[in-house]
Amino acid sequence: MRPALDDGQRVWPAAELAAATAAxxxxxxxxxxxxxxxxxxxxxxxxxxDEAAAQAGxxxxxxxxxxxxxxxQHALRAAGxxxxxxxxxxxxxxxVLPWVPATVAGHTLAVARLQSAPVALxxxxxKITFTSGSTGAPKGVCLSGAALQQVAQGLGDAxxxxxxxxxxxxxxxxxxLENIAGLMAPRAQGATVVTRPLAQLGLAGASGFDAAAxxxxxxxxxxxxLILLPQMLRAWCVLLQRSGQHAPPxxxxxxxxxxxxxxxxxxxxxxxxxxxxxxxxLSEGASVQTLNLPGHNRPGSAGRVLAHxxxxxxxxxxxxxxxxxxxxxxxxxxxxxxxxxxxxxxHIDADGFVHISGRxxxxxxxxxxxxxxxxxxxxxxRSQPAVAQAVVFxxxxxxxxxxxxxxxxxxxxxxxxxxxxxxxxxxxxxxxIPRWVRGGAAFDARSGLATANGRPQRDAILRAHAEALxxxxxxxxxxx
Length: 480
Known about the structure:
- The chain is an alpha/beta fold and 480 residues long.
- The chain folds into 3 domains: 5-119, Rossmann fold (3-Layer(aba) Sandwich), CATH 3.40.50.980; 145-360, ANL, N-terminal domain (Rossmann fold, 3-Layer(aba) Sandwich); 363-474, GMP Synthetase, Chain A, domain 3 (2-Layer Sandwich), CATH 3.30.300.30.
- Helices cover 29% and strands 25% of the residues.
- It contains 12 helices and 28 strands.
- The chain has helices at residues 14-31, 44-56, 69-79, 88-91, 145-159, 176-188, 211-221, 230-243, 263-271, 374-382, 413-424, 458-469, and strands spanning 5-6, 11-12, 35-39, 59-62, 83-86, 100-104, 107-113, 125-130, 140-144, 166-168, 192-194, 203-204, 208-209, 225-228, 253-256, 276-282, 287-291, 304-305, 310-313, 318-322, 328-329, 340-348, 354-359, 364-365, 371-372, 387-393, 401-406, 435-438.
- It has a 5-stranded mixed sheet. The chain has a 5-stranded mixed sheet with strand order 14-15-16-17-18.
- The model is unreliable at 476-480 (pLDDT under 50).
């Protein structure tokens, strides 16, 4: 029987991992904890605590290490966390807490009991995931165990024909996508979960990524599957192209999600031998709803709807989902409707592939009355090798404009201009970019130009570059 977990320090047979989980579940039950928050890197302790919390009936709140101290404090208060588990170096950030050591999966962790008042949660809440927090304060999404299992089972069933028996966790477990698709789904299918501290895979913080270190790790660990963000895939493809290398031979599937990918990047990856499939999901649907799979892959689409989900297109073009829906937001008693409006615009083609065109609230209407989804143009710009990030503006303006950040920060502006020219050649005239500026700083949380998980902060980017773009009059009218 194949092992359940390989964490780099120990290869865990299924029986031993189950025993460690049961012991930890008993400890959690005896502790009297209601809501557990973990602040951990990828590794065996997270896996054991995640499954033990489910067994003990304790709500789990996984917190990403890239959250700021203020975001962590907000999440702890909002969820009514009464037990916090982290590692000793991070525990020093809160010296006033009554930390005590505890051993989980053979690792010594720091544990603190918090004096938190109980918070009303939707019935059946098993996990609370916090969104990226576009306004700085992450929003808590309450998920039931049934919804989580539905998605894990749906993904497992869809991928069963691929024969995947080794999945490498390339994203943080605290991110819902990896937690469900990269941990729960492989575990349910009996695959080996291969996990390493994220720094060993070339990841740093929310957006730092060393493609060379990542490539070396993937070739050494020989996984069958991975989940990547588009920017990670883009950087990996550039590395492979420049080095003349082909994809690692053991890979059977590379899922890509978290943001629009674009057909050019998918084609480039596939030409390098990377078996890439784009998917689509949202926290309110317990993560993945649609997925392209080998043999059923339409680059530029988000794939077909998976068995656990249902999807429809409203008259205004907004996508609605049903099936594995969340139970509610923290602090908001509003009932969740049977069909959840995603805020995403799109359509379903004749073959059942879902196409996402952008966010409903981001829709730009030019001075000539043309409706343009900025994500459409941004995806086209990011498909150019020189462009790492792009944000497009133009609501109420005669033409669109953009702020660009290069993949190589030392790249000359002529490379960015060539990227804009190449992009414009693929777009209708009303969606072209006649004016652009280079970003004054990288789009990340440190600069304040992106959320903690790398999502651009459009308002902040506009304020920082409005004068250079000639858009000072648009500061109060641009969609958020």
